[in-house]
Amino acid sequence: MLNVPPQIVRRKEDIRFEFEEFLAEHEKALPRDIEPEQAELLEKLRSPFKNPGSIVPGLKELPLKALLNLPWKPYFQIMLLIFMLYIPSFVLLGVGFKFLGIPLGPIIIVLVIGTLGFWAGAFTLKFSFSLFQHLLEVARFPWIAEAVRDPLESAYRKNRTKKTLTLALLLMGLPTVLFIVKFFDQLSNGSTSGSSAILGLVLSILSLLFVVPAQAVLLLSLIMSQKNTRIYDHLLQPIKNRVVGYNEGFESILTKNNYEVVMILGDTPGHSIRELGDIPLIGLASLVLVLNAFVYNLMIPIIGEVSDLLIKAQNNNAPVIGWLVTRFSPIGFLFFMLLLVTVLASLTTIVLPLIKLWWVIRKFRLKALSELDPFLFDEITDTALGRKEKMEEEAHVVFALREYIYQMKTSPIDPIRLAQITILYTFYVWKGLPKIAG
Predict the structure, then answer these.
(1) How far apart are CA 289 and CA 302, in angstroms?
(2) Exposure of 311 by Cβ count < 10 A (0-12 exposed, 13-18 middle, 19+ buried)?
(3) Do 300 and 93 form a contact (C-beta atoms < 8 A)?
(4) Cα separation of 240 and 242, whole Å?
(5) Which of 197, 245, 262, 357 falls 20 to 30 Å from 211 in CA-CA distance?
């Protein structure tokens, strides 16, 4: 202002504020439908180590989509702080088990499985939401993006922290009751003195409070995995509708609608539906670890008893169960049964709908090839017999389209990756868990 000559009169028309560059840079990083004070809170969460006091208010007030819109670094820093609250529970459990006269082996098992499940759930929450969000931002095919927008908004606009924390706290009533039963059992057996048993019971129950935040993350991951499966089903539905319309109708494959279906089911970089196939695969893979970690956290007081029961079945040569226990080890067998139930539940919610879609798309491809092949056959025959000097330009285009349709993917999920996940978990259950369980 000192450099402006005093004789020059400033007018309103001369005053400009240009925020276009600022908005273009920060607009995508700011989620919609949040209050101004929430935006300030969200900005503090970008540096959680510098603003630890903002973590609890942020988790309580911000919608889930705002938290998952954070960059990867602050998101994992927040999850690391939550995980650090999980660690003291094992210290208290170790002291409590020692006073109660309980072996410490189950604590190590739950620590390993709980750690794997926690980070698998934390990663899946962020990764799946990021893939869906990328689909909406790119919007190469608006008819697919529009099918996902409303269910995605409905699933992630709520704040689920209070609900999951409350439910996780209520579920801690189960191990509390089991610890009380264990307390009276140890007293009746004379395994420990009354004062030691009371102290061990208090410490064991107190440790469950530190398990609650981790259980809330596991529970949130389970809830959102189910909702992500439904959102993915909404994503596939318009593709299925277009394919069914062609399969049962009389329209030609040479239409814009059908060409878009062929393109999105092909291998075109940036357009293929296979790029979103990681959503159900990651959900299926993490669901196993998350569910087992969730169950083991609840069952820790009686894991020893379950192990003893299975050892008796092994020693008595019980049919089927005795053989399985021999192959897996007692705790490994328990994990195997939980794994089997989890995989069956995952197959019914994720894989079976994909099999139905695969059958419809396969029929679409066969019909498209049967429509194009006669035309190409006539063109090739006429050229070979000398009826035409050369093939029509349209025939070259149709031939290229025919090759593209032939290479079209009939499954939105890469079967090789599905096989890799299956082999990985088979190795984990067969070899890894017996070593963890000892």
Answers:
(1) 20
(2) middle
(3) yes
(4) 5
(5) 197
CA distances (Å), origin 58, targets 55, 61, 212? 5, 5, 18
Contacts within 8 Å (CB) and 24+ apart, 238-247: 238/143, 238/144, 238/147, 239/144, 239/264, 239/265, 239/273, 239/357, 239/361, 240/357, 240/360, 243/360, 243/361, 243/363, 243/364, 244/360, 246/364, 246/367, 246/368, 247/360, 247/363, 247/364, 247/367
Which value, to the nearest 10 degrees, does the dihedral of the CA atoms of residues 312, 318, 323, 329 take? -10
Read off the pLDDT of each residue in 83-96 and give the average, rounded to a whole number: 92
pTM reported for the whole predicted model? 0.77
Distance CA 165, CA 299 (A): 19
| DSSP structural state of residue 431 | I
DSSP tally for the chain: helices H, then strands E: 19, 0
Q: Which two tokens stand for residue 70?
A: 């954070």
- DSSP character at residue 371: H
Could you tell me the CA-to-CA distances from 342 to 181, 353, 372 in Å, in that order?
A: 28, 17, 44
Beta-carbon contacts of 366 under 8 Å, excluding residues fewer than 6 positions away, are none
User: What average pLDDT does range 212-234 have in this prediction?
Assistant: 88
Please give the Cα distance from 61 to 56 (Å, whole number): 9
- Inform me whether the pLDDT recorded for 1 exceeds 50: no
Over range 345-373, report the average pLDDT: 73
Chain segment 368-399, per-residue pLDDT in tens:
888 787 777 777 776 666 666 666 667 767 77
Q: What is the pLDDT of residue 331?
A: 54
Q: Which amino acid is at 91?
A: V
Q: Read off the pLDDT of residues 118-133 as tens digits, 9 standing for 90 and up.
A: 999 999 999 989 888 8
Residue with token string 């208010």: 57
Compute the average pLDDT of residues 155-182: 89
Asked if 404 and 259 touch (Cβ cutoff 8 Å), the reply is no
pLDDT in tens, 266-323: 666 655 666 667 777 787 778 778 887 888 888 888 776 666 655 555 565 555 555 5
pLDDT for residue 169:
93
